[in-house]
């Protein structure tokens, strides 16, 4: 294929660019010219009249120590400084002055760094706690209904005074210092509002499995454990200790099953299969409680039932087989003996006296066939739904009588027309391929044997006289091939067209060298010949010798 790339001159690119007002419009509507100008490096020159809509931040001043310090004073935390004024924050971090200019900002902790805080009231009450973000924790106390601080505010109407007692320290040390500060305030005469024990880090951090189980043993149900000790509960949930916790808490699941109730239910059944059929919810509850293995360990695995295989001797099989006339009846009446004969390899011997099942299987009488045919109004239904009776009727030659009340099939030809058509073909195959309607009509009435008898005559050989007669009825070789394909094949193999059918035109056009020269002088190669004269190109592509002749006459330019 030829590469179709349009080459633009500088003047053409300049004229095209003047049609558009922006770079985007130029790129979307004429991408070829846009890319051509960009690759040649003249895009900015021809687009000088277009405005540059790209945002370019231009700063009047450059960051320094003083400007960074002034900008840092507007924020209360480093995270806020980084989000809202990243330019100065980045400069300070890169030049190592971030700690100096952010000294006045509040620092936050994390899961490993906590601080101690206190909420003091004028009635000499105090609440001591620890957190990794003091300001947010104070706000949470004021908006949480269950908080001890919020409840004291509603009861007294006094506002708390918040203080941060320590800086952020290691979380293990902070859990100890919280108890120290609580004892200090209590010794000074303050009323402590804390309800839970001090040292809780929130989220269950630091609790061991023994501590969690010891705390869970104080409660009877999981909801009580969740409400009473949320830190211990979260620690157990996150670390996958809930199975151990459920055993201790005696929790209730679907249907209100406790461990004692489940043991009673399991004792009523002697197998897990029956239990699963009748009390499936009990199995799920035991599995969730973690006691399923304990409850099912006493169940014995019952062995599968072994059915006795009846063993027959060879003489017994002979005696049994003599009772039946057909193998299918033998198989249905006594399948064990039939399969035993197969395993021993003597089925053919014991069934040697048996006959083949008749085609219709049941010997129907004419009255029975007529009674069966009266159930249908169409011959197709009779053939499809009662094929045995229909085939038996055709064998007895009474098909037309029993189907007299039915609608006749819509035949395209009459019997006489179908006979006349069949005489033009050599055998059944040709008739089926060329005229299926006539073939089906004759087959339906079992008349094919009268026209094409089986035996030597069925595959009639195409002699010279027969082929000559067939060719005389056709005008072209294509017509001859369609009507008499076997005669066409014999003639093609023997190559005696001049004797059999000299008047028939050849299937393909055969050109002389002079005729080929007149055509090929107008083209330069085979590709152009294909567009100019497809038939000649196809002939040359199939026959290398004719292609060599054609190449001699191609134009040389």
How would you describe this protein?
By secondary structure, the chain is mainly alpha-helical. It has 39 helices and five strands. Strands 1, 2, 3, 4 and 5 form a five-stranded mixed β-sheet that branches. A hairpin with a 4-residue loop joins strand 1 and strand 2. Helix 6 crosses helix 7 and helix 24 packs across helix 26. The chain is flat, with a radius of gyration of 52 Å.
Element layout with pairings:
Elements: H1 10-17, H2 23-29, H3 31-40, H4 43-46, H5 65-72, H6 78-84, H7 86-94, H8 98-101, E1 113-120, E2 125-131, H9 134-143, H10 148-156, E3 161-164, E4 169-170, H11 171-187, E5 191-192, H12 209-216, H13 222-228, H14 230-238, H15 242-249, H16 259-267, H17 272-278, H18 280-289, H19 292-296, H20 314-321, H21 327-333, H22 335-344, H23 347-350, H24 366-373, H25 379-385, H26 387-396, H27 399-402, H28 415-422, H29 428-434, H30 436-444, H31 448-451, H32 464-472, H33 477-483, H34 485-494, H35 497-500, H36 513-520, H37 526-532, H38 534-542, H39 544-552
Parallel strand pairs: 2-5
Antiparallel strand pairs: 1-2, 1-3, 1-4
Going by helix content, strand content and strand pairing, the class is mainly alpha
Count of distinct strands: 5
Helix content: 40-55%
Measured between the Cα atoms of the first and last residue, the distance is 19 Å
Count of helix runs: 39
Which assembly state applies to the chains in this document?
single chain
β-sheet strand percentage: under 5%
Largest sheet: 5 strands, mixed
Radius of gyration: 52 Å
**Low-confidence parts:** 300-305, 455-459
Mean pLDDT: 80
Overall geometry comes to: flat
